[in-house]
Amino acid sequence: MLELFFLCFGDVVKHVYAKNILHKVTIITSFCNQSHAFKAKLKEEAERLKIKKQTLHTIVKTRWSSVAECLNSFILLRAPLEVLVAIDKSIAPAKVINTINNRLFFHDIENLYKIMQPLAYAMTIIQSCSITLADCYLILSYLRLTTDKFVFNTETQTFGKFVGKVVDIRLKEFQNDLYLSAYYLHPKYRGAGMLTAGRSAVYRYLAEYSKKIGNNLATTKNVISALQRYEIKSGPYALHFTQGK
């Protein structure tokens, strides 16, 4: 499952739109890390504006979440950065100053962050030691919903369509009724919000499994009937789920 998000992440950052943005932020963060004077003044200006975030995050290739963290640090420190280059034109190289002064720069950062942040969040959840197969189903649904929202709202239609296509392809590769069945069977969820097509897929999957372990048709029908009672919390299935500690 983690591989799915790594592949989506890798595909997205390879697009020319994303590569261009990340190239620019890397130039600025590299300069900031090398110039103690610029870094100190950025911190001072952030403090003056009462901004808790005072340093720019650096993108680390081995930490997938660092891209979202880096983009977010630019969003939070936009005002201090703009103030610094406006007051002192000699504070940084012309390339850095021109990039910060370009209004589209921060607009593009915010746009890219809208898709990178959900991917980073999903990868954090997937790597949790307590994750279940039911959680995997929810994370896949989360990825689908956030991607669709991004594609619909983004002003960069070409990039949006690319992201939508990437996620479509990767989700199909990892589509598995096992996750759907786990979500249905989890006592906390019991298929909440699941459409008829989803329930039918679960019944088919579990019926096939029932046959594989040697149950006859009558027993399999009883299993499906029990599942329906389980979903509506009828009879012995009326117990409430309590999260373990």
Quick recap:
With about 240 residues, this protein is mostly helical. The protein contains twelve helices and no strands.
What do you see in this structure?
The protein is mostly helical and 245 residues long. The chain has two domains: 2-173, no CATH class; 177-237, no CATH class. The chain is built from twelve helices and no strands. The longest helix has 24 residues, at 103-126. The chain is elongated and about 80 Å long. The two termini are 25 Å apart. The model has no long low-confidence stretch (mean pLDDT 88).
Which key features would you list for this structure?
245 residues; mainly alpha; 2 domains; 12 helices; 73% helix; elongated
Please, how many domains? Answer: 2
Class based on secondary structure composition and strand pairing: mainly alpha
Q: Oligomeric status of the shown chains?
A: single chain
Helix content: over 70%
Count the helices. How many?
12
Sheet-strand content, in percent, reads: under 5%
What is the helix/strand order? HHHHHHHHHHHH
Give a count of the beta strands, DSSP E runs of length 2 or more.
Answer: 0
Report the principal-axis shape.
elongated
Uncertain regions spanning at least 5 consecutive residues: none
Q: Summarize the biggest pleated sheet.
A: none
